[in-house]
Design goal:
mainly alpha, 5 helices
Length: 103
């Protein structure tokens, strides 16, 4: 529904079926931990010592992977690395073109 509302809907390709799930296992069946583990991680990042107020707020509002020192992979850098490994996928929905991935 949301993809159709925002104009981002793309039909699933038979040869490229989506895989749903999380990146790494949480290691618990506790529903509270499952529901809130990512929020806890975000607040731990935001409360690290030595950060400015702006950096702390950015940990809460920036896209996944953002870090104050640029040391973490963002979704954009992960997509670019994927396209570099799989050049035939460049330009497909949600992926950068070959030129953007090379930069």
């Amino acid at each position: 529904i949301w993809d159709r509302m925002f104009g981002t809907f793309v039909e699933e390709l038979e040869e490229d079926r989506p895989r749903y799930g999380i990146v790494k296992n949480i290691g618990t069946f506790n529903p509270l931990k499952v529901a809130f583990h990512e929020w806890i991680g975000m607040f731990k990042d935001a409360l690290m010592p030595g950060l400015t107020l702006r950096q702390r707020l950015n940990y809460l509002i920036q896209p996944p992977g953002w870090s104050h020192d640029g040391s973490r992979d963002t979704s954009e850098t992960l997509k670019a690395a994927y396209v570099r490994r799989n050049p035939g996928e460049a330009g497909k929905p949600g992926l950068p073109g070959a030129r953007a991935a090379a930069e």
